[in-house]
Structures are given as C-alpha cells and as structure tokens.
Amino acid sequence: MLNEGLKNIVGNENVLDEPETLDLYAKDESFVQPIRPRCVVKPERVEQIPEVIKWANQTKTPLVPVSSGPPHFRGDTVPGAGGAVILDLGKLNQIIRIDRKNRVAMLQPGVTFSQLVPALRGEGLMPFMPLVPRASKSVITSELEREPITTPRYHWESQDPLRCVEVFYGTGEMMRTGSAALGELEEQWAVGKAQVRPMGPAHLDFAKLVQGAQGSMGIVTWGSIGCRPLPEIKKTFLIASQKVEDLIDFTYKLLWKKLGEECFVVNNIEFAKLFCKDEHEADVFRSTAPAWLLVFSIEGYGMLPEQRVEYQEKELMELAQLHGLQPATLIAGITSERVTETLSGPSYEPYWKLRDRGGCHDLFFLTTLDRTNEFIAEMERVVGTHNFSPGSVGVYLQPTVLGCNCHCEFNLAYDPSRASEINDVKRLDEDAVLAFSKKGAFFNRPYGSWVDVAYQHATDTISAQRKLKTIFDPNAILNPGKLCF
User: Fold this and answer.
1) Does 77 map to a domain?
2) Does residue 155 sit in the same domain as residue 41?
3) Residues of the chain whose pLDDT is less than 50?
4) What pLDDT is stored for residue 1 in this prediction?
5) Structural domain count of the chain
6) What is the CATH number of the domain that holds 317?
C-alpha cells in the first residue's frame, strides 16, 4: 500500500517493483552487502522531487538517490537499510543551458558524459572529465563525488569544476547555491549573468555540503559546471621511464610552470587497459613498454593557437632534456593520436576497467605526489603477502589542485565469476587500506568498509557531520547507513 502514495506522485509507470528490477539495484560491482529496495521511483519532473521527499518523511522510508546508469562500483547506490526506495533521477536528463561566453553549462543529474560531450562540442566547448569515464556516468554525480579531472592546471580547489547547484534537502526545502541564489535564473540570464560563482548564499559554500556526501545530505536537481574551449590544435606526448620517481620530479616542474592540459601518470598495466584495442595488443605493450608513463597534452585555442602550442612544446622539450627524459608520440606501438582520441570522450564498451578480467575494484585516496612512490612500494609489499598477481594491479596518479596534492589510485582486476578471486581482492583491500592509513593516506571519499578507517581518528568530524545531518535531514531518510550516519 505504501507504493500507492508514490504512484500518486510520479505515476504508475514510474514506480517499479518487479523482482528483476529490484535485484539490479540491490547490489553493484562493489563488495557491499546486497539489500533489495522496496521499489524504484523514476520522477520525470523536478516538481515531483519534494513531493517524494515529503512522502518519505511521513512514512519514514529511506531514499537512495541514483543518477548514473550501470555498472555502479562503490556501494553508495546500494541501500544501506531495508525497505528503502531507489530514487532514480535518470529521466531528469535535460541540458538546461550552455553559456559559451562564460564557459559554463547547466545540467540535470541524468545527463551523462556521452550526452554532454557532443552537445558541448557543438558550442566549441568540452567538459573537464575524469579519466575516460564510462558512457553512462552522470556528469553531476561525478562532480559531486569529487572525481579528479585530468587537467590539474584548471583544478584550483577540491570543488572544481562544480559551480552552483539546486538541491532539495531531507526536509523537502529547496536551495540554490552560489550565483544562482541571487534572484530567478531567467532574470540573471537576461542581463548576461551566469551561474559561475560557487560561494553563497552569504559567505558560506553550501554546495560543499552535498559534495562527497553520497546523497545523504540532499538531492541535487541541477548543477552548473565549468567547461573549457575546444582546442583547434592538440598535441599529446608520452614520456616513459622505468622509475616513477623520475616522472614525479618532472611532473612537478610542468605543474609549477602551469604548462599543458592533461597531465597524469600511469603504470604500463593501466596504460594498456586504457589505450590498447585488444588483449593481444595489451600483452605486447606490457611486455615491451617502460614501467611508467606520463601522459601530457598541449592545446592551442583562442588567439594565436599555433604560437601557444609552439612555446609550450619548446619548454616541454627543454625541461625533459634537463631531466633526462624524451617526450615521444609513439611508444610500443601506441600512438599519441590514439591517446588523444581516447581522452576526448567517455569510454567505449566494455568500460575500460572491466576489459582485463571482467571485474575491477578501485582503491584510492589523497596524498602528495612526492609520496606516491612510498604508497606504490607499500602496495607491492601488501600484494606480495596475498594470492594476487602484481600484473593485475593498475596504478593511476592524478595531480589535483594545481599539483598541491595527488589522487593515488590502484585498480585491482579480477574475475567476478570466481569466488576465490573475489575473496582475495576483499582481503587485499582490507589490508591495503589499513596499511595506507597508517602511512598517512587521506580517504576523502570513503566507501563501504573504508568508512571505519577514515573516521577512526576524526571524532570532531563525526560530531560536526551528524549535527549538520539533523539540520538538513532531521528524519535521516536520505541514504542512511553511509558515511557516519
């Protein structure tokens, strides 16, 4: 009978409770305990969101917001409590506005990277993207989860490239943050204003309240995101080394000079998964390429694009020579043109992380770039104590916040059809997370079993977050069981 109230709000066809559908939302690719939801609700209009929240408060029913399409990987969209309702926002997929002048786009949460990239291209823009996201990934969810972008020169603080949001809190009340809080949107647009300033209302940045909260603080119904110009000229360089330390020192110099666009380091295992066309090519690459590769691109756009590329390429070559490195456009059969094409949009199917063994478990945290070699060595040590192949560990180092810190990620490939491999990865994850925590890793996006490690020495943070939860979601209906709630 409870579902009848939802059907009155969103319509019979948008409330799904077939067992096959519920099973799809009961679990994901993570190791979080599966819990079947009560039903799945797919609102078609923003006006239905506060009504669903009001219903959830009246019935004390947990709501789990979901925006991206499958596969999901981190357990944050799996119900953390029984009797939950999945609020699937996939039908709210309108690109509300693209502002070429101010380089900003406003979109609903159901807009995916496969939808946004061609739309922006038509306006001479491109989005800031994480490393080759899956085609079904919600752009707004990616920004809310603070997934690192591959262009650290434009990453000024952790919130980037998210600007303003419209959010409905657990009370059902709506807030627009930043520039969007200053009057009606249409009135702002009419006088040439855009929703580019994240701070506000007043001196607070309320968008940060919902970032990294895994849907436990509010439900975002649109967000504005920063974009960058579509380049007229682009050159991608591959800089290889047998020692990651050599690339780390070189990367710091590039970031200090604010050169280039894409800039990240991967091991040859990760590079092969990203850029090789098939398993045979990947095997050949891994056996012949150096152990570590820095991917670095230079773009020309606006006034004098050729000169912009020319001077940056000259500086790149001079710096590389000083560090004993050689930027190349071809390494072990993989061309820079293929790398450029791959990085220009979302992943083709199957998703690149699943191409090796069919399953992938990510382990990531923040540190500083100069300490990543310590964590790489620690990972090698932990892997050596488990029944896990070192050849199945991909490594991705992404400088963030202009290089002030670094997203350090290990991708553990495994066969999901083999229970023994699943158990091996689980045990490896537990031991590695504990070891990394002892070495100072900062788990700023704790999922699943990482939560206990992330919060064990953060009693003040727990107290503050729980106080905010009682203000913005007093009945604790939004994604309970996540973080410290």
Assistant:
1) yes
2) yes
3) none
4) 61
5) 3
6) 3.30.70.3450
Q: 463: which residues sit within 8 A by CB, 6+ positions away?
A: none
Question: What burial letters (b/e) apply to 439-452, b meaning 16+ CB within 10 Å?
Answer: eebebebbbbebbe
User: What was the pLDDT predicted at 425?
Assistant: 97
Cis peptide upstream of residue 71 (ω within 30 degrees of 0): yes
Peptide bond into 350 cis (omega under 30): yes
Domain of residue 242 covers: 233-343
DSSP notation for 320-373 = HHHTT---BSEETTEEHHHHHHHHTSPBPSSPGGGTTTSEEEEEEEEE-GGGHH
- On whether residue 237 sits in a domain, the answer given is yes
CB atoms within 10 A of CB 30: 19
Q: What is the CATH number of the domain that holds 20?
A: 3.30.465.10
Q: Are residues 25 and 83 in the same domain?
A: yes
Q: Is 141 exposed, middle or buried (0-12, 13-18, 19+ CB in 10 A)?
A: buried
Could you tell me the CA-to-CA distances from 438 to 15, 248, 382 in Å, in that order?
Answer: 46, 23, 13
Residues 6 or more apart in contact with residue 70 via CB below 8 angstroms: 24, 28, 136
What pLDDT, on a 0 to 100 scale, did the predictor assign at position 45?
A: 97
